[in-house]
Amino acid sequence: MRILHVSDCYLPRLGGIEVQVADLVRVQREAGHEVEVVTATPGEAAPGVHRIVAGLPFELPVHPRGTSRLLRLMADRAPDVVHVHTGAVSPFAWMGVRAAMLARLPAVVTVHSMWDPVTRGVYRALQAAFGWRRWGLVVTAVSEAAARPIRAVCGPGVPVRVVSNGLDVQAWRPARPAEPTEDEAGRPVHIVAVGRLAPRKQPMRLLKLLESARGKVPPEIAMRATIVGDGPARGRMERYLRSGRLDWISLPGRFDRERIKELLASADVFVAPAPRESFGLAALEARAAGVPVVARAQSGVADFVRPGKEGLLGRTFDELASAIALLVRDANLRRSIAEHNREVEPVACSWPAVLEGFDRCYELARR
């Protein structure tokens, strides 16, 4: 099958959508599909990557004549299906949807974000202006939590399917650890979080959450926390740590995948507290690596973390702090969840399952 992916952002930018789309392209090519990408992100030439770049300030990933440029590209490449990737509001990606409709090509739209009330209002306004519900789209969301607000806007006439983000599960599975020595048994309980340090992810709330959890743990139980990532909130977080003398929490910056794997090998608990997390790829990586996960019950992480099985879920700040504290205090509970996570794969998030899910959506769009 000839597949054309359309995404505002793509490599060399590094972010959740960019990395996930690049991995999907690679895996689909390995499965024998003819796959190309069109993006508004500038960068070096790469095989099968078409860059429609306007040279706007701050390298904004949009093009004022994007629809016409995309139409010409679609006519030239003649894909069997156009697969569009959007965040909350992605102008270039929706130009791709419009171009596919004008070219009478089947289109699948994957929404990688959680639609908040403002976003839902925007898409209702766009429906009133353009009638996009009649364009014959098939929509996918990355989790049930992300799908619910999309279905509320799309209505019964637009199919909305859930297709998980993909992960090479085997690559993240650890070797079974040896029984802990006496020295290892007395080490601090290690809590890990990974993500962009941006206000949307509420990183300051994460620090206060860890601080609250520490207060629920007996002082004789040692704790340490590592928050991996970078972003505009990092300076404020560092000042907060210094002012509160929270020297047991470290901010080492951004890690690549290999360093994250090494970090997870020493982790006892992984925390993903953002309430509007549409999926939570870093949490899935931790779960695949055998680490118990603490996350919001209303986030996309709940698709692959069940309370008491793969980790613990909470709906409020206090419930999350209590869940972290419980795992820190209860070594047997940590051990049982870790053993389950090592032995039971998250099959729905494996690439074979993701490819099968998208293949069904492509066929539905073509019909």
UniProtKB/TrEMBL annotation:
Domain annotation Glycosyltransferase subfamily 4-like N-terminal: ranges: 15-170
Keywords (A to Z) from UniProt: Glycosyltransferase, Transferase
Leader peptide range in chain numbering: none
Top-level division of the source organism's lineage: Bacteria
A Pfam family annotated for this UniProt entry: Glycos_transf_1
Domain Glycosyl transferase family as annotated: residue spans: 187-343
Family annotation (InterPro entries): Glyco_trans_1, Glyco_trans_4-like_N, Glycosyltransferase_grp1
Gene Ontology MF terms: hexosyltransferase activity
Segments traversing the membrane: none
Biological process annotations from GO: carbohydrate derivative biosynthetic process
PANTHER family, per the entry: SULFOQUINOVOSYL TRANSFERASE SQD2 (PTHR45947)
Protein name in UniProt: Glycosyl transferase group 1
Species this protein is from: Thermobispora bispora (strain ATCC 19993 / DSM 43833 / CBS 139.67 / JCM 10125 / KCTC 9307 / NBRC 14880 / R51)
